């Protein structure tokens, strides 16, 4: 299952920098994950300081 970013996101960009497949981009007020490209590795969740990425 792909990850999604919750409203806890503080737009720091740590997840996007850490993503090995570059499927995270800056959205409107928070970062977003392209579910079609996400490989569900969990790197974004491990990197996020506020636990915003969660598995769908």
What does this entry show, briefly?
With 56 residues, the protein is an alpha+beta fold. It has helices at 14-18, 43-47, and strands at 3-5, 24-26, 31-33, 53-55. The protein is built from two helices and four strands; from the N terminus they run E-H-E-E-H-E.
Task: Please write out the topology.
Elements (H helix, E strand, L loop, with lengths): L2 E3 L8 H5 L5 E3 L4 E3 L9 H5 L5 E3 L1
Explain what you see.
By secondary structure, this protein is an alpha+beta fold. It has one domain (3-55): 2-Layer Sandwich (Alpha-Beta Plaits). It has helices spanning 14-18, 43-47, and strands at residues 3-5, 24-26, 31-33, 53-55. Strands 1-4 form a two-stranded antiparallel sheet. Strands 2-3 form a two-stranded antiparallel sheet.
Question: Looking at CATH, which topology would you report?
Answer: Alpha-Beta Plaits
Order of helices and strands: EHEEHE
Average pLDDT for all residues: 97
Widest sheet: strand ordering: 1-4
Q: Which CATH architecture?
A: 2-Layer Sandwich
Q: Care to count the β-strands?
A: 4
The number of domains is 1
Secondary-structure-based class equals: alpha+beta
Largest sheet: 2 strands, antiparallel
Q: Which term fits the overall shape?
A: globular
Q: State the helicity in percent bands.
A: 10-25%
> Tell me, what is the CATH class?
Alpha Beta
**What percentage of the residues does DSSP assign to strands (E)?**
15-25%
């Amino acid at each position: 299952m792909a990850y999604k970013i919750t409203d806890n996101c503080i737009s720091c960009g740590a997840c996007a920098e850490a993503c090995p497949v570059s499927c995270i981009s800056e959205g409107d007020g928070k970062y977003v994950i392209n579910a079609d490209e996400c490989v569900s590795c969990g790197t974004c969740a491990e990197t996020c300081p506020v636990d915003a990425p969660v598995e769908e």
